[in-house]
Specification:
Layout: E1 9-14, H1 36-43, E2 50-56, E3 79-83, E4 94-98, E5 124-128, H2 149-152, H3 160-166, E6 171-177, H4 182-192, E7 196-205, H5 212-221, E8 225-227
Parallel strand pairs: 1-2, 1-6, 2-5, 6-7, 7-8
Antiparallel strand pairs: 3-4
Bound molecules: pyrazine-2-carboxylic acid and zinc ion.
Length: 232
């Protein structure tokens, strides 16, 4: 980290929720619960200007639930091509919509932050993915990279970029679940909207563990830095 700039760091703890953790989570990420102590160590550091907990928080009719797409081909962990509903004047785009088991339904125990996470430090909670037709892996934008709150109104509970800017945050440190989806998307979008973006490697686990090397490459190419707990 350059010594000649004032660093105002924020910590974003992504989706450390029951449904993403073994043994009972419907979309459990291998080793997901085990990173809680590393995240608690980070949360206890005095330097963070802001600490944000994100919560995936879906309605029962969410687009990402395989069960909402009847048909033999639409199984969890498969994907299909979908189009966005563009803002006026914007072009429509297509992307792959990944299908998942039902997970993190609003107001259910699966959406709770796991009790191993120490929530005693001052923090903000951000809910995301609350509109049925909008997939929100990142807290900054939908899965099309659309940060436009005209089309994403109510899909995320607060404007995180604006909140962090108000607090003079320069650097965003991202940990949590899952490394290959919401952590990746949040770190990429943090860089895109103008923050120095960092992922702390020991603080995340992937849905597909073997994908982590490729994910790291994609992050680094986009200007995100990967660091270790052991780095100074
Ligand atoms: C996530 C899949 C679906 C995540 C959220 O938190 O990485 N993954 N919804
Ligand atoms: Zn989700």
């Amino acid at each position: 980290m350059a010594a000649d700039r004032t660093v105002r760091p924020a910590l974003i703890v992504v989706d450390m929720q029951e449904d993403f953790c073994p043994p009972h989570g419907s979309l459990a990420v291998q080793g997901g619960r085990d990173i809680a102590s590393i995240i608690n160590t980070l949360l206890a550091k005095p330097g963070f200007v802001a600490r944000i907990f994100t919560k995936d928080y879906h309605p029962t009719d969410h687009i990402s639930f395989a069960s909402n797409h009847p048909g033999p081909d639409n199984q969890p962990f498969t994907s299909f091509v979908t189009m966005n509903n563009p803002a006026p004047g914007k072009e429509s785009e297509t992307k792959q919509q990944q299908l998942w088991p039902v997970h993190c339904v609003a107001d259910t125990s699966g959406a709770e932050v796991i009790p191993e996470i120490d929530i005693s430090s001052e923090h903000l909670v951000v809910h995301k993915g609350m509109r049925p037709e909008v997939e929100m892996y990142s807290v900054f934008a939908d899965a099309f990279g659309n940060c436009d709150h005209g089309t994403n109104a109510n899909s995320v509970s607060i404007d995180v970029a604006a909140t962090l800017r108000t607090q003079g945050v320069t650097d965003v440190f991202v940990v949590g679940l899952a490394g290959d989806y919401c952590v990746k998307a949040t770190a990429l979008d943090a860089a895109k909207v103008g923050f120095n973006s960092w992922v702390i490697e020991e603080g995340t686990k992937c849905v597909v563990p073997a994908s982590w090397d490729a994910v790291k490459e994609e992050l680094v190419t986009a200007g995100v830095s990967i660091i270790s707990m052991n780095d100074p």
